Amino acid sequence: MTKPQISSTRLEWLDMLRVLCAIEIAGHHWLRACMHVNIFSNTELPGMFRNFLWSYKNNNAGQQLITTFPNYLILDNQHTIAAFLTNFTGFLVGFGWEALHVFILMSGFSLSLRLTEYPSKPIKYWQNWYEKRLKRIILPYYFVAFILFAGFLCVYVAVNSINFPLFAPVKMQLQEKIGRSWLEILIGHIFLVDPWASGWSTAYISSAWWFILPLLIAYIAFPIYFKVLTKYGGKIFLAITFLISVSSYFFAKTFSLNENSWNYIILFECFNFTLGIFLGYYYTITKDKKRLQNLLFHPLTTCLGIVLVLAGNLMNWFTISYPFSSLFFTFGLFIVGAKISRYLITVPVIQKLKNVDSYTFYLIHQLIAYLFALVLNYVLRGYTTFFGGILYILTVILATSVFVKFYGKTEKFIASRFQSSQTDG
Length: 425
Fold this sequence. Notes:
Elements: H1 12-36, H2 52-57, H3 62-68, H4 80-93, H5 98-112, H6 122-161, H7 167-178, H8 182-191, H9 212-232, H10 234-254, H11 264-268, H12 270-285, H13 289-296, H14 299-315, H15 322-344, H16 358-364, H17 369-380, H18 384-424
Helix pairs in contact: 1-4, 1-5, 1-15, 1-16, 1-17, 1-18, 4-18, 5-12, 5-15, 6-7, 6-9, 6-16, 9-10, 9-12, 10-12, 10-15, 14-15, 17-18
């Protein structure tokens, strides 16, 4: 079996970029939580354009965005400073959903980073490879889901037992999540599919978990992608996946299909995933790795990344160019994010962020966002989005650290008990 060559130095900027993407995604969900708590809005505008968040997510609405600017930045019940801080937060993390695309590209990059060629004994090699990836994705998910699910039920019982005004909106949100049969909820969360739902899409307690199944599907497909890359070369490989991605986005918009499904990565984001695979493979087989990194961090490359981000977001606003938008802003954000990450790892206070487990962070962040926004709004009012957002992110980072340590100890305990039972047997 051919063993992969391992890079001599760890790419710390890549670790930092993962965490930045996780924070951006959490920030976007924080904004959505604030929006649902009615912290910011402009009721004089049509429903879909009452704040910057709805505007950013309104794909194919470029003309309306232009004509309504800057009215969706003028927020009800917020004076100038509070509105400025709210909109500033929106500018920083309102596009956080795009960080998911960058994470997909990075996943492909990381998976192929240590592979120089297709293994000569693929069955055994890929069997071990799958075991490691499934263990990394599935077990933390079940661990987090079990703990948060139990906590979720405790809160549900509490808000139904106590008549307190603060609990009213929480009760409504919880009822929306648990307004189904327990069997449906359990099967959907255990197997990641819901056979009772249209398209078998599971309505997770934390809606961000929808991404776990597409990620697993992409990991399952990775050996096929890598085989095609090593056999036919990068040009054919990327050309085919480019057509797959553009066609998928085009037909999804034409026929109003749901993009956030199990095939999200292998169809819609196929190009970005395989672009990451190609870049990771090319980086691994290239001897002069320092030159490649210098090229990535070159000022002209950074300028190119900024242009790609701007172009991709403009494409995202118009129907005719929408299918191409992700292909532009994803690679652009990867370039710009890499540059920012390289700088941040030189800052002593911030560099520790690279050690945060981005996957666990992603798993736990969304469930507490709404409750956080609801409670902090009673204290911070118009400043909740900005200052509350900082408290929210710091809390999620702390919770992630606790979860990771608890999970590590639990895993070691189970492993030791299993080993003891094997020895006794």
